[in-house]
Write a structure and sequence with these properties.
Number of helices: 1
Distance between the termini: 5 Å
Number of strands: 9
Helix content: under 10%
Low-confidence stretches: none
Mean pLDDT: 92
Order of helices and strands: EEEEEEEEHE
Shape: elongated
Strand order of the largest sheet: 2-3-4-8-7-6-5
Strand content: 35-45%
Length: 123
């Protein structure tokens, strides 16, 4: 099976691609071939979505990034900024690709994710 993603693309190396579906800088990352199998973080949940009559897993992950070290004389990061270090993303697992869509912070809304999924076909 081959997936086709009908979104504006900024980078495509064959095994790694970046798409900007809404032209505002937010990206959808697609990994194919040897790039697949990336560790996305802690699994928060999963559901099945239907594309072209086939059912595929959409998995929500939370990453854990290390904040920069505190420097002498600087205040610690504000609690509201800590979400930057715990990003949430959803990954659609297709037979030939992994499609990463950032959800928080500053990621795609539910309606935008649905729009992205509508742009994917599997043949």
């Amino acid at each position: 099976m081959t997936s086709i993603i009908d979104l504006p693309k900024t980078v495509d190396t064959g095994s790694f691609a970046r798409y900007v579906p809404f032209g505002d800088g937010r990206e959808v990352i697609v990994r194919r071939g040897e790039e697949r199998g990336f560790h996305y973080g802690l699994e928060l949940g999963r559901k099945r979505v239907t594309l072209d009559g086939g059912a595929f897993e959409l998995v929500r992950f939370q990453g854990l990034l290390s904040p920069p070290p505190l420097l002498s004389g600087r205040a610690s990061p504000l609690p509201q900024s800590m979400e930057v270090y715990r990003p949430v993303a959803e990954v659609l697992f297709l037979p030939d690709a992994e499609v990463l869509m950032r959800r928080a912070p500053g990621g795609f809304s539910d309606a935008e994710v649905e729009s992205i999924l509508d742009a994917i076909s599997v043949r």
